[in-house]
Amino acid sequence: MPHLLITGGGRGIGRALAENGLARGWRVTVTLRRGEPPAGAQALFLDVTDRAALDLAAGRTGPVDILINNAGIIGPDRQDPLDMDFDGFAELLQVNTLAPLAVTQAFLPNLRAAGHARVLSISSQMAWMGYAKADRIAYRASKAALNKVMQGLATRLEPEGIAVALVDPGWVRTDMGGAAADLSAQQVAQGILELAEGLTLAGSGRFFRHDGSERPF
Ligand code: NDP
């Protein structure tokens, strides 16, 4: 049974992913900052922007078959190109773009130890370069940058047999997505875990939807 590690597993999509993994009989570890982990999951209490905490946690965790970089924030109220909260934008980049790379680097020994490990990072349709929208531009940019970083990481890790891909979960009912969203976290968790489980080097560096179909960057 695979060992699944999820960042931000205390609520939202991350918690649903953990619960779905546990229901499959997988070994599940979640990172969280507060609260209770899903029953049966191992918990690592940390902030994903804290590299020292990540290194410590990785040292206490065995081989990891599947890493899902899920933790993320929507960012500040002011993120219009003409009215930008620059501190908030910087925090968005820290959490949504730099942290997934730092998490993957910290747990690389664990991924290497598993053999043929997979890394899936939760991106967003809002990263799509085909839109010229101006709303939430900092969030959009943080996810577009995440896509580029993970695409490059996929190229670097391919010789080691580690597959790295991105997933757009759709619009999901969580604290971030809000009550009007059309998908439940449980619905998308099912598809995302199937995608992660079936991910091979052929899919590395690519961007998928939660139903497993490929989507444009
Ligand atoms: P939620 O706001 O419900 O949950 C966010 C999660 O990220 C929480 O577990 C939170 O932990 C964690 N987190 C945030 N910042 C940090 C940090 N600095 N260190 C550690 N953990 C942190 O969001 P969703 O579940 O909706 O979103 C999950 C992912 O999916 C995000 O990457 C988001 O951008 C993406 N996404 C969501 C969509 C949606 O419609 N919901 C659409 C497209 C993408 P804590 O409880 O400690 O705050």
What would you note in describing this structure?
- The chain has 217 residues and is an alpha/beta fold.
- The protein has one domain: NAD(P)-binding Rossmann-like Domain (Rossmann fold, 3-Layer(aba) Sandwich), CATH 3.40.50.720.
- Helix content is 39%, strand content 17%.
- It has six helices and nine strands; from the N terminus they run E-H-E-E-H-E-E-E-H-H-E-H-E-H-E.
- It has helices at 12-23, 51-59, 86-106, 108-114, 137-157, 185-198; strands spanning 3-6, 27-32, 42-45, 66-69, 79-80, 83-84, 118-122, 163-168, 207-209.
- The strands form two sheets. The chain has a seven-stranded parallel sheet with strand order 3-2-1-4-7-8-9, sandwiched between helices.
- Helix 5 links the parallel strand 7 (118-122) and strand 8.
- Helix 1 packs across helix 6, helix 2 (51-59) runs parallel beside helix 3 and helix 3 (86-106) runs parallel beside helix 5 (137-157).
- The radius of gyration is 16 Å and the shape is globular.
- It binds NADPH dihydro-nicotinamide-adenine-dinucleotide phosphate.
- Residues 8, 10-14, 32-34, 47-49, 70-73, 95, 122, 124, 169, 171-172, 174-177, 181 line the site of NADPH dihydro-nicotinamide-adenine-dinucleotide phosphate (NDP).
